[in-house]
Amino acid sequence: MTRSAELFERAQHSIPGGVNSPVRAFKGVGGTPIFIQKAKGAYMYDEDGQRYIDYIGSWGPMITGHADEDILDAVRQRLELGLSYGAPTALETEMAETLCQLVPSMQKVRMVNSGTEATMSAIRLARGYTGRDKILKFEGCYHGHSDSLLVKAGSGALTFGVPTSPGVPADFAQHTLTLPYNDIPALEACFAQVGQEIACIIVEPVAGNMNCIPPQPGYLEALRRVCDQYGTLLIFDEVMTGFRVALGGAQAHYQVTPDLTTLGKIVGGGLPVGAFGGRKEVMDHLSPLGPVYQAGTLSGNPLAMAAGLALLRKIQAPGFHQQLSDYVTRLCAGLEAAAAEAGIPVITQAVGGMFGLFFTDQPSVNNFNAATACDLEAFNRFFHAMLKEGVYLAPSAYEAGFVSSCHGEEELQLTLEAAQKAFATLKKS
Ligand code: PMP
């Protein structure tokens, strides 16, 4: 028995499913999870001493690689000054100024402790600001696990939402409308019917929670247009895409400006942080200035601010995002070539530093139904074959992959060699 297997066995006695977040349990891909002992640069090391090239990067934050010395130093320097005060600090203003400068649609910003908190708070603010209850989200987009957002479409195209999890009251879920991603006619039909009742649209401007699905040309513009027409706020959930698809996020990449933006992951440099911000006039509805309540004991935590600021400084280096994007382009081309050589139908989709691999014979995958129609079984076998070769992909066919600036020539070659072997095993079975 491996040490990881032993640790997993032990964990299950005291932690539900042995993990603190479900996808870590390898339930989708089968097998048992690997327990990580340490990580450095592009690599993670498990409790059995195996090394892996990491394409998760803590699900996004490790964009300059693991255990980045500059970030560790920034945290070390703050450490001696105390861990939390529950009172304002200069660092929080520095963080807010940095965010507003890097993402100019954010004229004011508030820090929270996770992506879930950021989206939950942004939605409350949108509802409070507009005085409307309904919100619109898209099938396959994930925005954290707050009640309003754990909702799927009802049976008809325009029925009220139904909970995807026990514990979410149906009365609550009915305020969440759900439409297919990348479908402008469905969007327009929905707004023609109930547009005046919709407080906000929340969207992943590049979907990263149903594998990697970019917006079709004109789609984000259509969201902006209907929001303007009906007095609805547009929320870009950039928890994943923020500082990753471009320095200014997807809104800079696609040149579409939301009213509110939610951030997480990179913004905390690996410590638990989220943020939401947007137009001053909307943000000023928040307590203590306005009536919409939102708060947090550890929000703006000094260690987290120090880590996040150190990371945000580094990723402003000229060419940083181009390097990520170049790596992803070569990785995707190499993966497609290796699959083609083995005669396995595979396509890739990518934007900046995020990418996805689809086992499909379709030319592109544009929404949740298309993503779930891919060959899940083939992905699962590929995942395990890659893991065996020392490449750690996200343990789910429905998660995007992430690269860091530590992923270089050597990691690319090792990954593509592993992929050749992995695709060959798929061909055999
Ligand atoms: N929004 C998006 C787009 C996400 O990808 C995630 C998490 N992967 C969240 C929100 C929730 O963030 P957290 O897990 O920090 O609560």
Automatic annotation (TrEMBL):
Taxonomy, superkingdom: Bacteria
| Pathway annotation | Porphyrin-containing compound metabolism; protoporphyrin-IX biosynthesis; 5-aminolevulinate from L-glutamyl-tRNA(Glu): step 2/2
Q: What is its EC number?
A: 5.4.3.8
| Cofactor(s) needed | pyridoxal 5'-phosphate
The main location class comes to cytoplasm
**Catalyses which reaction(s):** (S)-4-amino-5-oxopentanoate = 5-aminolevulinate
Q: Which CDD domains match?
A: OAT_like
Q: Which residues carry this modification: N6-(pyridoxal phosphate)lysine?
A: K265
Q: What class of enzyme is it?
A: isomerase
Provide the alphabetized UniProt keywords: Cytoplasm, Isomerase, Porphyrin biosynthesis, Pyridoxal phosphate
Q: Which InterPro entries match?
A: 4pyrrol_synth_GluAld_NH2Trfase, Aminotrans_3, Aminotrans_3_PPA_site, PyrdxlP-dep_Trfase, PyrdxlP-dep_Trfase_major, PyrdxlP-dep_Trfase_small
Provide the protein's localization: Cytoplasm
Any GO molecular function: glutamate-1-semialdehyde 2,1-aminomutase activity
Instruction: List, alphabetically, the SUPFAM superfamilies matched.
Output: PLP-dependent transferases
**How does this polypeptide assemble, per the annotation?**
Homodimer.
Q: Which family does it belong to?
A: Belongs to the class-III pyridoxal-phosphate-dependent aminotransferase family. HemL subfamily.
Task: Kindly give the PANTHER family that the UniProt entry links to this protein.
Answer: GLUTAMATE-1-SEMIALDEHYDE 2,1-AMINOMUTASE, GLUTAMATE-1-SEMIALDEHYDE 2,1-AMINOMUTASE 1, CHLOROPLASTIC-RELATED
Question: What is the protein name for this chain?
Answer: Glutamate-1-semialdehyde 2,1-aminomutase
Q: Which organism is it from?
A: Marinospirillum alkalitolerans
